[in-house]
Structure formats: structure tokens, C-alpha cells
Amino acid sequence: MTPDMAAMTTTDGEAFLFWVLAPLMVLAALGLLFVRRAVHAALCLVFVMVSLAIMYIASGAPFLGVVQVVVYTGAVMMLFLFVLMLVGVDASDSLTETIRGQRWIGLLLGLGLAVVLIGVVSRATFLPGTPLTENQVANPVGLARILFGDYVLAMETVGVLLVTAAMGALVLTHRRRLETKRTQRWVAEQRVKALAEGGTLTPLPAPGVYAQSNAMDTPALGPDGRPLEHSVSRVLRIRGQEKAAPASLVETRSAGQVSTVPAATPDGGEDS
Amino acid sequence: MEITNYVVLACILFAIGATTVLLRRNAIVVFMGVELMLNATNLAFVTFARIHGDLTGQVLAFFVMVVAAAEVVVGLAIIVTIFRTRRSASVDDVNLLHG
């Protein structure tokens, strides 16, 4: 095999690796396109990135392979998963089309791009070059020489870019507190103010008729024997999951005495 | 096996990433499509570096990785901010911003 040919072909082992990995990578990448949930898409992308790292190591770039694992799968994808966690894991796509025919136009454009790119690459003749020497492959020193020799200015600029990006993220995600903080004193003062409009100073009564059931969804009985509606949690009342107090208990107690105590207003000061 | 198969794989991955950007509505998945495109270009860079026996291609791939990391940080921060105000990560809703 001439040196020219050696630059353009791979060993059989590498060819085997390629033909195993490449279809799986394409499948995972298609998963990014068709999978509904964003978390599954992220996992597909992680698979593609790890496979790419293996390919880098196989094609003479061990340093880039390591950086690919550390930076992309380690940092970038974890950041993606972190943001998914913040935004909500169930953040799946809406399937309604806002632009009519967008799906087909998009698929057509993507297919066209693939056809054009592959057509250009497969018809192009590459100049027979020299393969990477063993010395170039084995150590990242050559990489460092180029990085800090020819590209030192770009390296400095990239450093500035990283600092700016970190600052930008801090500024963008920082949130100023728009309303004042709810302190204990503030809550107490609000309750005293609400007293004039029929609120209560004390916390709301606890729910549950303790003799028969102490569930959250049954109202407590007042001293007059009537069930106190507002002792049940507001959320349960709104969702209609409130149960009636045990009928026998209400009847026996309210029949014995004539109530003089007015029922407390249901919309009193909310217990917080 | 021809080395150019790697470049063909890079083309396929790039096209899939571009289609993802065009088709998906979830802003985070759209962002993942951008990442896939960047990765595909990196594969092409590494392969060309191998064909020409020149490490400059690998250096450029390294720069692409660094810039992509910075881009992801800022982009995700923007998505989090949009989600906070609009309660949605769909790219369809963002056009309401100019109102």
C-alpha cells in the first residue's frame, strides 16, 4: 500500500467500528427528530456524542475524544438536562402546526441539504495528503504548539468569550425581587387590617371530625354543631373534593340546642 | 474503507440537525439540533485533519467545542428567562414578545 493510499483508507478494525457505530448514530440522531419528550431527545444526543468521541479516538485525535466526553457529554448535556429539570420534564411538543405545511417543507429542505452535501462530498476528489504521523497522533503536544503558537490570539479571545458568557448567564438568570418579602410581622399586620372586613385574627380551624374521621376533606364542627366549611383546605373546596360532615353527628348535636353563635364567615383571613 | 465515509456521516448528521431545527417546536430540542450540527462539523474537521496530515483541523474543532460551550450557556439562560416570563418553552409563543 502506497503512502497516498494509506492516507485515504482505514484499517479493517476501524472499518468494522465505523459500520457498527455509524448506523446507530444516525438512528439516535433521527430519534432527536421524532421522539416526543425532550429528555429522550437529550439521551439520544448523548449517545451520538459519545460515539463521536470514540470515532475521534479511532481517527487519531485522542485529545479531542477526551474533550468531547468531558465538555459535550459531561458539561453541555448535563446543562441541558438541568434546564429541562427547571423547565419541567414533561415539556413535550405541541403537535399543532402554526405554519401550514411546515412539516413537509422542513423535511424537504433537510433531505435536500443532505442530498446536496453528500453529492458534493462523494463527487469531490481529495488531494492525496500525508497521513498523521505516529508522533502527531500520540501526544497532544503538537496540538498545543499550534494552539499557543499560530492561534494564540484566538485562544485569548476565546478566554474572554467564556468569561463574557458566564457573566451573561448570570445577568440573564438573575431576578430582582419585585414584591416585598412576606415576613411574620407583615402577615400579622394584614390579619389585623382584615379584621374590619370580617376576617379572623386567629388561624382557621383545623379540618376533620375527630370522633369519626380525621381526614383533611371533612369539615370540623363548630360549637353550635354546624360544620365549618372554611376549615377544609381551599384547594379541596375549589376542586369539589370536600366531603360532608357525618350526618348523624350534625343532627344530634344541633337538635339539642338552638344555635346562637353565628357561623363564621367562610372567606375570612386565609391561614398562611 | 474510504476515509471519506466519515465526511458522508458528518453530512448526514448535519442534515438531521438542520431538520431538527426546522421542525421541532420545543426551544430546548431546537437547541439540541444546533449542537448536533456543530458536532457534525467537528467530525468533518477531524477527518480532514487526518486526510491532510495537519493538526490545524483538530485545533479548529477544539475552538468549535469551546465556542459551542459558551453558546449553550447563554442560549439556555435565555430559554430559562423566556420560560419564566411566558411559562412555555415553545418557539411559537416567542413572537408575542414584540407586541
Automatic annotation (TrEMBL), chain B:
Name the enzyme group at the top EC level.
translocase
Record keywords: Cell membrane, Membrane, NAD, Oxidoreductase, Quinone, Translocase, Transmembrane, Transmembrane helix, Transport
Spell out the reaction equation it catalyses. Answer: a quinone + NADH + 5 H(+)(in) = a quinol + NAD(+) + 4 H(+)(out)
Provide the transmembrane region boundaries: 6-23, 30-53, 59-83
Q: Which Pfam families match?
A: Oxidored_q2
Q: What is its main location?
A: membrane
EC number(s)? Answer: 7.1.1.-
Q: Name one GO molecular function term.
A: oxidoreductase activity
Where located? Cell membrane; Membrane
Q: Which InterPro entries would you find in this protein's record? A: NADH_UbQ_OxRdtase_chain4L/K (IPR001133), NUOK/Mnh_C1-like (IPR039428)
Membrane topology term: Multi-pass membrane protein
The text of the family note is: Belongs to the complex I subunit 4L family.
Q: What does this protein do?
A: NDH-1 shuttles electrons from NADH, via FMN and iron-sulfur (Fe-S) centers, to quinones in the respiratory chain. The immediate electron acceptor for the enzyme in this species is believed to be a menaquinone. Couples the redox reaction to proton translocation (for every two electrons transferred, four hydrogen ions are translocated across the cytoplasmic membrane), and thus conserves the redox energy in a proton gradient.
Describe its assembly: NDH-1 is composed of 14 different subunits. Subunits NuoA, H, J, K, L, M, N constitute the membrane sector of the complex.
Annotated protein name in UniProt: NADH-quinone oxidoreductase subunit K
Name of the coding gene: nuoK
